[in-house]
Amino acid sequence: MDKLRKTYDIEVTWRAYPLQPDVPEHGLPMARLLEEKGLLITPEQATVNLKATAQSLGLPFGEGQMIYNSRLAQEIGLWAQDCGRVHQFHDAAFKAYFVDDRNLADNAVILDLVAFAGLDVEQAEEVIASRSYADAVDRDWAKARELELVAAPTFFMGDQRLVGAKPYPVLEKMVAGVLGQVQR
């Protein structure tokens, strides 16, 4: 007898996380950031580790020699979520940052990503000028501190938490486990 499959609608909500919030808008070389944090790893080792993780997940990864402030991208990301294009924007932002080494604190870069994601560039310019999503990012950052988040991504579903980039089967197992709890 074939097992009946149920389908579920899962709503994904993106939240801003303070990724290196003290990095200036023009960015920092990764070597300097590692040194400032007192980490005993070379930029080359860090890049090799990040590339290996990305490769294991089937994701591209560039050389990553610079670290940029992502605050503006987070604000526009929350706006993109309200516009129903959050996944398109985040996909473009991740590629720009992690593959193409583009500065997400640069308005021109953000507006390129907005256009690529199919969002209205003039509206995005207004959002940037008014910083109308700054308070929403502040609230997300406060929530991240409250939840003691230590890494991005962190996934929450029900009372489950999954930290770090994981392969799809790991996420699938989390969903199945939570759905199993709900069905009891």
UniProtKB/TrEMBL annotation:
GO terms for molecular function: oxidoreductase activity. InterPro entries: DSBA-like_thioredoxin_dom (IPR001853), Thioredoxin-like_sf (IPR036249). Residues 1-174 form the DSBA-like thioredoxin domain. Signal peptide: none annotated. Pfam families: DSBA (PF01323). Transmembrane segments: none annotated. It comes from the Bacteria. This is DsbA family protein. It comes from Desulfobacter latus. The lineage of its organism: Bacteria, Pseudomonadati, Thermodesulfobacteriota, Desulfobacteria, Desulfobacterales.
